[in-house]
Design brief:
The structure holds two protein chains of two kinds. Chain A is mostly beta strands. Chain A is about 5% helix and about 40% strand. Chain A is built from one helix and seven strands, in the order ββββαβββ. The longest helix of chain B has 20 residues, at about 805-825. Classes of the chains: A mainly beta, B alpha/beta. The interface of A and B includes residues 41, 57 and 64 of A. Chain B: Its EC number is 2.7.7.7. Chain B: It comes from Paeniglutamicibacter terrestris.
């Protein structure tokens, strides 16, 4: 798939491709046409959504994904050698597409 | 791979848990679990349901509780008083299993202690909870055996400290716990909901707990602090968090961090263990966590029968009810004594002997003799208290019950079957219900506690779940909607469950304005969804209106108790929990009609002081020379039990359908049925009451019964062999007893088995098996397929509804008694009805009924009004201008001699204390005297004056009118007489005349009748001086409105306008078809019962449920010789004058028309009216307000 080029810090609406293990743990990602490898154990959490502000419906039986979404923090290096970069990514339940949530600067230099 | 969840809140954790126990168990089983815990907040509310689900599915139940932890607040103590307690977290306590009930009993006692208002040392508790010291007393047995394991998780004091990264404090707290309870009784609960790193319930939080546990040496276990079975429940949990905090979701502090508190499968839990261990950099911790969890689960697995007493009926010890011999021998002896007392001439009747023997041997086999003796004990205790009581329900089917004084009905005379009540095929404790005067119900409860000992007795509780209105309010609050907006919506919701909100929006015209806004206002869609999510979820428990649990002295080991509204302790279990937990429940129902009857009898005795006077007044004298009948005792008291059940004037009154106020037969549908059925004997009343049920209605029994009864159609029996069973109801199946006989006759199964089959009818899972059995056996016995088809059709439609004839017989007694009183002693009867308000209608309708009965309503009077409504002799013998509409017994006192004086009670904002003091101070000789001694506040004094309570005092002075006095009091000095001028108690005030009134300004215009009535409605919700509608008379005449009393003389299908005050609104349950709404209005001359079909509902919209004064356009529908109702076409709010139609509307070509009327060859009126009766019956069956007291 083709993506917009040009990254503007702070707003990340771009999509990203992530490959996972059979257990659903990310192992590598492709972004802006380049492949990144994991440089550390990925960390995950479930982040709350203010669904009552964002959603039109909250019907019973709707299933997971209304109240929270899973976020993976990936520490990666370009082709396994470049500088360490941190991505926070999430997979949309309905479409299966990944998107970038945040790219926290704070993680840039950490090991 | 397996995992046992040890921390699970069910929906019975009010405002916290989301999923029902059975759904949690189902989810666990889907994942292959072999055990599951339930740890509800504050109690065992869901535990019995959990036990049941676990037992049915063959997994081990584990039971615990989630309690608030209390400790003294920090800061200095004040004046040596104990420091106040505050909540510092929550803990979980799990009961030890396979301990012969010791663990479970400790859990019950712990919870009971948590609900006490003070600690054992007398310190006040701010909320439900337990102190560490209290906890320590329940955790171990005297021999040191650990009975409860305490889990400290993320919500505990330790967990809150680690959450705030106060590691030292966390370790100190945990060490304190260790020295208090020991390592054996403690676990640290490790939970991650994978919330944002570092936050509450994050993996980091779990690791801090884990490290703290390892440092202090307490075994860690893994849980998921579950609140819902599936991820889908998370949004519901959010709304519950909001409802608990009474705060909108946006402003909520205590919302769950995310939606991960679900019953995760074992695979997920193992994965979480690994994730935690890896993050803690010690992978060996994962197996440790899982092993510890499994070990604790094994320790807590319950063996339901020995541990909780599952399914084992427990009755009070024989010595408590004074029995020293074998209970079976005792029961037989008492039955024998009953024969001597009640049926002395039948001592050797073989039928009686055979029946008694069969009953006694069944009871002995089931071991229920102590149960019968216990109920007999309660029953005689109530009688000894001088309280009216009557056994009700299937208990009336037992001869033993009759002989030992529990029931008043001889089952042999009414042909009632014991098998319907009890048999060897039904081993649960049977229900015996006792109806008592509602006003004295709590007195009886206290007496039962005294008699059996508080350790054996408790009240039963009931769960109150969300219904549409409550759900929409809490959902609206969660979304942060304006309270006024929510209010508008909530008020429009009418009697349907929250789960059908969206369907209701599509169907119901009164919700149309709201439905139109859906989709345009974003929040409304969400509001509907959240309302549906809250549907039926438990909100709180309350005292069950009639259930009392009787047991032996181990009761408190088997159920937790909490305080009830009336200070007596209440079990946390509800009626569904009784049978499984082997608890004997006695329903002591407060029936207002019993209180009303008692009151009426007392009034009769008060106004007619001798037997002769009573007999004359009531028209009871009979024969020549006239003699006083046996049911009037020499002192004039009437013994209703001895009144013959064949009194013709009583049946005349019933057939007249003027039955407002009469038990069971006053509703619009019942009046219609009574009119069609025209009862002539007591058995007709039993049938009438039994017909008025969903079963006979659904199986289309009413119409054929009525046709056969009146000889319009020949009686028809599916097969001659069924004639004996069905003859009394002309071939139509009405009673459970008949269903039993049909099964027995056609399959030869025996009556006991027949009752088992009957109970399975209507159960979609079990019915097919009953059907195939019925068909094959009947076929083998030679019945034709056609007969079998027809009979099965009846049985199947009859379902498990229908009515047990014993119920009907028991119900019919107060029905007959109330009608008897209305016919013979109308004034006393009505006073009793006003006093206790037993029926379904607003009181003002029964006040209006006085006018139709020719009874004068006497206004409030400071000297003559008493604490209750009193029958009062009138001065002079003025007959009413016209004969009353409601018939009186021939020979009874003619109307015009007695009236009913309004009571001092029931006046707005006048307190009970004031009322009592006013009554104690009577008589008063002047307004000044009233002011000085009555203790009425200024407002109350004004209210009394406005209602004319001082008219008689004023009349003596001869100055001014009511308006003058009201003005005088309003303007005048507000202070009562200064203390030094008041007479000391016992001293009479000096007869100085009324200084107050002699200085009063006079000359105000006489208060208009209209205004008087409005004041009465405002202050008493009653229109006393005239009917509310009278003020509209001019308008109604201009519009050409017909009066209720005139409708009966009209032809069927006459187009009319009627008007009145709404007195009843009913909607039958919708079964696929379109809803029908019944609205009854009262116009002072009687009630008009109007039926609104779909088109009319569309025309009226929001008016249907919210308008009080209605003008209705419709067509008359004859429902019987004495009955007429209205098919509504349109309606208006009578108080919205500008919207009303113009005079001559009935000739307006643009008026609403009935589409189908007159357009078909069939007589649609007849068709509609049959439909209408059936629907009316359906509407009313759900309405038990008229029956249950409290």
């Amino acid at each position: 798939m083709r993506r917009e080029s040009g990254e503007r810090m702070g707003i990340f609406t771009q999509s990203i491709e992530v490959d996972c293990t059979p257990a659903g743990v990310p192992i590598r990602m492709r972004w802006q046409g380049r492949e990144y490898r994991l440089a550390a154990e990925p960390v995950r959490w479930f982040e709350r959504r203010k669904w009552w502000k964002e959603e039109l419906r909250a019907e019973r039986g709707r299933g997971p994904g209304l109240v929270d979404y899973e976020v993976w923090q990936l520490q990666v290096k370009l082709a396994g050698v470049g500088p360490l970069r941190t991505f926070e990514v999430s997979c949309q339940i309905d479409t299966g597409r990944w998107r970038i949530i945040r790219m926290p600067e704070a993680y840039k230099e950490s090991a | 791979m397996s995992f046992t969840h040890l921390h699970v809140s069910s929906a019975f954790s009010a405002h916290y848990g989301v999923s029902w126990p059975k759904d949690l168990v189902a989810a666990a089983i889907d994942d292959g679990a072999d055990a599951l815990a339930i740890t509800d907040r504050d109690g065992l509310y869901g535990s019995v349901k959990h036990l049941k689900a676990c037992i049915e599915n063959g997994i081990d139940p584990i039971i615990g509780v989630d309690l608030a932890l209390l400790e003294p607040s920090t800061g200095p103590a004040i004046h040596g008083k104990a420091k106040e307690l505050r909540t510092v977290g929550r803990i979980i306590a799990l009961a030890k299993g396979h301990s012969n009930g010791a663990g479970y009993a400790a859990l019950c006692h712990l919870i009971t202690a948590a609900h006490q208002l003070t600690t054992s040392t007398g310190v006040h508790k701010p909320n439900i909870g337990i102190t560490r010291e209290e906890l320590a007393t329940y955790v171990k047995a005297p021999n040191g055996e650990v009975l409860l394991t305490i889990m400290l998780g993320a919500g505990s004091d330790v967990g809150l400290a680690t959450g705030h990264r106060q590691y030292n404090q966390a370790r100190t707290l945990l060490r304190d716990w260790r020295s208090l309870l020991g390592v054996e009784a403690l676990r640290v609960e490790i939970t991650t909901h994978l919330s944002n790193p570092g936050e509450k319930l994050s993996t980091a939080h779990a690791i801090r707990m884990l490290r703290c546990a390892i440092t202090v040496g307490i075994a860690p276990v893994l849980t998921n602090a579950v609140r819902y079975a599936e991820p889908d429940g998370a949004a519901t949990a959010d709304v519950l968090d909001s409802a608990r905090a009474l705060s909108s979701l946006s402003t909520l502090n205590d919302i769950q961090p995310n939606g991960q508190g679900w019953l995760k499968p074992a695979e997920h839990m193992h994965h979480l263990a690994t994730e935690i261990a890896r993050s803690a950099a010690d992978t060996s911790l994962a197996p440790t966590l899982l092993r510890n969890t499994a070990a604790l689960a094994d320790w807590a697995r319950l063996d339901p029968v020995p541990d909780t007493g599952w399914g084992n009926p427990v009755v009070p010890e024989p010595h408590i009810i004074g029995i020293t011999t074998d209970p079976n021998t005792e029961l037989a002896a008492r039955s024998e004594a009953g024969i001597t007392r009640l049926l002395p001439h039948e001592t050797n009747n073989p039928l009686l002997r055979e029946r008694l023997e069969a009953e006694l041997s069944t009871i002995a086999d089931l071991g229920f003799a102590p149960y019968f003796l216990t109920v007999a004990e309660v029953s005689s205790m109530i009688t000894d208290m001088g309280i009216r009581s009557a056994a009700r329900g299937s208990g009336a089917s037992s001869l033993v019950n009759y002989l030992i004084g529990i029931s008043q009905v001889n089952p042999l005379t009414h042909d009632l079957l014991f098998e319907r009540f009890l048999s060897r095929d039904r081993a649960t404790l049977p229900d015996i219900d006792i109806d008592v005067e509602s006003a004295r119900r709590h007195e009886i409860y206290r007496k039962i506690f005294d008699r059996f000992g508080a350790q054996r007795v408790s009240l039963m509780s009931m769960q109150n779940g969300y219904r549409a209105r409550g759900a929409v309010r809490d959902a609206g609050t969660a979304l942060g909607m304006e309270e006024t907006d929510i209010d508008v919506i909530a008020k429009q919701l009418w009697r349907f469950s929250a789960s059908s909100f969206r369907d209701a929006l599509a169907e119901k015209p009164e919700l149309a304005p709201f439905a139109d806004r859906l989709g345009t206002e974003k929040q409304l869609d969400l509001l509907v969804d959240l309302t549906e999510r809250l549907d039926r979820l438990p909100r709180h428990i309350s005292m069950h209106p009639c259930g009392v649990i009787l047991s032996d002295n181990t009761l408190r080991d088997r159920t937790p108790m909490e305080p009830s509204g009336i200070t007596l302790p209440m079990s946390q279990f509800d009626k569904h929990d009784m049978d499984p937990m082997g608890m004997l429940k006695l329903d002591v129902l407060g029936v207002r009609m019993q209180s009303a009857i008692t009151y009426s009898l007392a009034e009769i005795a008060r106004i007619h002081p001798s037997a002769q006077a009573v007999a004359t007044a009531g028209g009871h004298l009979s024969g020549k020379p006239a003699s006083i009948p046996g049911y009037i005792q020499p002192n004039g008291a009437i013994d209703l039990a001895l009144v013959p059940l064949d009194d013709e004037p009583t049946f005349e009154l019933i057939r007249s359908t003027h039955t407002l106020g009469c038990f069971q037969i006053e509703s619009p549908g019942q009046r219609e049925l009574i009119g069609k059925l025209a009862p002539t004997e007591f058995n007709d009343l039993i049938i009438d009451i039994s017909l008025f049920r969903p079963g006979p209605m659904k199986s289309n029994m009413v119409k054929p019964y009525l046709e056969n009864r009146h000889g319009f159609a020949p009686e028809k029996y599916p097969h001659p062999s069924l004639a004996p069973a069905l003859a009394e109801t002309h071939g139509v199946t009405v009673f459970h007893e008949q269903v039993l006989r049909i099964f027995d006759v056609m399959t030869d199964c025996g009556l006991a088995k027949a009752d088992v089959y009957r109970r399975l009818l209507g159960n979609p899972k079990a019915e097919p098996a009953v059907e195939s059995l019925f068909r094959s056996k009947a076929l083998r016995r030679g019945y034709s397929l056609a007969v079998i088809d027809e009979v099965w059709g009846t049985l199947s439609a009859f379902g498990s509804f229908g009515f047990c004839k014993a119920h009907g017989a028991a119900f019919a007694v107060p029905t007959y008694h109330s009608a008897w009183l209305k016919a013979h002693h109308p004034e006393a009867f009505l006073a009793g009805i006003w006093e206790h308000d037993p029926g379904m209608y607003p009181k003002r309708l029964l006040v209006a009924e006085a006018r139709r009965m020719g009874i004068k309503i006497l206004p409030l009077d400071i000297n003559r009004s008493a604490l209750g409504y009193k029958v009062e002799k009138l001065d002079g013998l003025l007959p009413p201008a016209q004969l009353p509409v409601v018939p009186r017994a021939v020979g009874a006192m003619p109307p015009g001699r007695y009236g009913i004086r309004l009571s001092l009670r029931g006046i707005r904002s006048v307190s009970e204390r004031e009322v009592t003091r006013v009554a104690a101070g009577q008589p008063y000789d002047s307004i000044a005297d009233v002011r000085a001694r009555s203790g009425l506040t200024r407002t109350s004094l004004n209210h009394f004056a406005a209602l004319g309570a001082f008219d008689s005092l004023q009349a003596g002075i001869g100055r001014g009118n009511r308006a003058d006095l009201v003005e005088h009091l309003r303007a005048g000095s507000s202070k009562p007489v200064a203390q030094r001028h008041r007479p000391i108690p016992g001293q009479l005030s000096l007869p100085l005349g009324d200084i107050d009134l002699s200085t009063m300004l006079i000359g105000a215009e006489q208060t208009s009748l209209d205004e008087v009535v409005r004041t009465e409605l405002d202050l008493m919700s009653l229109d006393v001086s005239a009917h509310l509608m009278e003020s509209h008379a001019t308008l109604l005449d201009a519009l050409g409105v017909s009066r209720a009393q005139d409708l009966l003389a009209m032809r069927n299908g006459t187009e009319v306008l009627v008007a009145g005050v709404r007195v009843a609104t009913q909607t039958p349950p919708m079964r696929g078809g379109r809803r029908v709404v019944f609205i009854s209005v009262d116009d002072g001359t009687g009630c008009v019962d109007a039926t609104f079909f779909h088109e009319a509902q569309q025309r009226c919209g929001p008016l249907l449920f919210s308008t009080r004064l209605l003008l209705i356009h419709g067509l008359t529908r004859r429902t019987g010789p004495r009955g007429i109702s209205l098919q509504a076409l349109d309606a208006w709010d009578l108080s919205a004058k500008s919207m009303l139609p113009a005079p001559g509307y009935l000739a307006d070509p643009a008026r609403a028309r009935n589409q189908s009327f007159g357009s078909s060859a069939l007589d649609p009126a007849a068709k509609r009216s049959a439909v209408s009766l059936a629907q009316r019956m359906a509407a009313e069956d759900l309405d038990t307000r008229g029956y249950l007291g409290a």
